[in-house]
Design brief:
Radius of gyration: 12 Å
Order of helices and strands: EEEEEE
Oligomer: single chain
Number of helices: 0
Strand order of the largest sheet: 1-6-2-5-3-4
Number of strands: 6
Length: about 90
C-alpha cells in the first residue's frame, strides 16, 4: 500500500469531522494553535459516524502528532472544542 500525499483538513468548531476513511496506518498532526482542545475517535470502516462530543478522547495534549495504527480499516474523526482548527493527515493512500 502506497502513502498518499499529505492533506490539510479544516475542522469546524464543535462538530465531528472525518479526517480519514478506510485506513489502518497514518499520522494526524495539529496545524493550528487554536483550539485549545482537540478530541479524537474512530469507527470501523462503514460504521455510523459519531454524534456526541462525549464519544471523543483528548488528542495533542503533550505532542502535536498522533500515530494511528489499527488491524482493521477505520474512519478517523476529530472534534475541535470551542474554536475551529486544522490538522494535517498523512495516511496510506
Amino acid at each position: 500500500m502506497a502513502i498518499g500525499d499529505p492533506t490539510i483538513v479544516a475542522c469546524p468548531e464543535d462538530v465531528w469531522t472525518q479526517v480519514a476513511t478506510n485506513e489502518i496506518f497514518g499520522n494526524i498532526q495539529k496545524m493550528s494553535s487554536a483550539p485549545h482542545l482537540y478530541l479524537y475517535t474512530y469507527r470501523l470502516f462503514g460504521s455510523p459516524a459519531p454524534t456526541l462530543e462525549t464519544e471523543g478522547v483528548p488528542i495533542f495534549s503533550e505532542i502535536d502528532r498522533h500515530l494511528v495504527i489499527f488491524f482493521w480499516p477505520v474512519d478517523v474523526y476529530i472534534w475541535c472544542v470551542g474554536d475551529a482548527g486544522q490538522i494535517r493527515r498523512d495516511f496510506s493512500g
